[in-house]
Amino acid sequence: MLFMTKEVVQDNFTGFYIHGSLAMGGFNPNRSDIDILIVTEAPLKIETKRRLALLFLAHSNKPFPVEVSCVNREQLKSFEHPCPFDFHYSEFWRERYEEDLKLKTYEFLNGEIKKDPDLAAHITIINHRGICIEGKSIVEVFPLIPQSFYKTSIIGDFNECLEYIFEEPVYCTLNLIRVYLYLSEGIISSKQEAGNWGLSSLPIEMFVSLQKVMYNYSHKQGTYQLEENELLFIRNYFANKVRGLLG
């Protein structure tokens, strides 16, 4: 995928970087995606965005889904939060991009510069634990993200997980732990690392529930059902703890 990406962006290529679970040693082939951040020297042209969309539509989910963002050097140099970006792909966008390309429309694949609050978290993880696959070094390319930006970014995900824990119990539980671990101890972790820490460090009343979560996370088909009272306990515990940490 690196080689094909370089073919698309050509001389505009700065670097290809991995963050997320694959970079942190917690990649789960049953649940994880491959998190990629591509940096270019100059903004992407519309036609380049459309070619990138074709590339990732063809190769995401073969065998693992990818989530990729493209930013240019100027966007990183004058970093603002939420951070602007040139292009983004994840499976969430698959149908929209397919429709745009099929109908030759520009509703989603266009020249608009969008902003993503998650980039503050992605770049923080790259700075701490990311991998440069090819191109300029991480320290040369990426700015240090203010802690306040990183906190704002992960708290957004935290609040969504409080809301959707009954629909996505495994993802949301592990993400709640991950945010709490960072806020309480300053540790940036993968979901797997956060879950393992939770098993050894969180209240015993949560232990059986976390065992279920970790088993389901490690297997393609979730085996254990989490009851409503278990998820309520988890949600309320972390909501109260994080509220206390944030003051």
Listing every helix as H and every strand as E from the N terminus to the C terminus, the arrangement reads HEHEHEHEEHEHEHHHHHH
Number of helices: 12
> What sort of overall outline do the alpha carbons produce when their principal axes are compared?
globular
What is the mean pLDDT? 96
Helical amount: 40-55%
Q: Going across the major beta sheet, what is the strand order? A: 5-3-2-1-7
Rounded to an integer, what's the Rg over CA atoms? 19 Å
GO biological process, one term: response to antibiotic
Organism: Mesobacillus subterraneus
Keywords: Antibiotic resistance, ATP-binding, Nucleotide-binding, Nucleotidyltransferase, Transferase
Pfam family, one: AadA_C
Which features characterize this protein?
alpha+beta; 2 domains; 14% strand; globular; adenylyltransferase activity; nucleotidyltransferase; ATP binding
Topology:
Elements (H helix, E strand, L loop, with lengths): L1 H8 L3 E7 H4 L10 E7 L5 H14 L6 E7 H5 L5 E3 L1 E3 L4 H10 L10 E3 L1 H12 L1 E5 L2 H4 L5 H18 L4 H17 L5 H11 L5 H12 L9 H19 L1
Helix pairs in contact: 1-3, 3-5, 6-8, 8-9, 9-10, 9-11, 9-12, 10-11
Structure description:
The protein has 12 helices and 7 strands. With 247 residues, the protein is α+β, with helices and mostly antiparallel strands. The chain has 2 domains: 2-144, no CATH class; 148-246, no CATH class. It has a 5-stranded mixed β-sheet with strand order 5-3-2-1-7, sandwiched between helices. It has a two-stranded antiparallel ribbon with strand order 4-6. Helix 1 runs antiparallel to helix 3 (46-59), helix 6 (118-129) crosses helix 8 and helix 10 (191-201) packs antiparallel against helix 11. The longest helix has 19 residues, at 228-246. It is globular, with a radius of gyration of 19 Å. It catalyses: spectinomycin + ATP = 9-O-adenylylspectinomycin + diphosphate. It comes from Mesobacillus subterraneus. This is Spectinomycin 9-adenylyltransferase. It holds the Pfam family NTP_transf_2. GO terms for molecular function: adenylyltransferase activity; ATP binding.
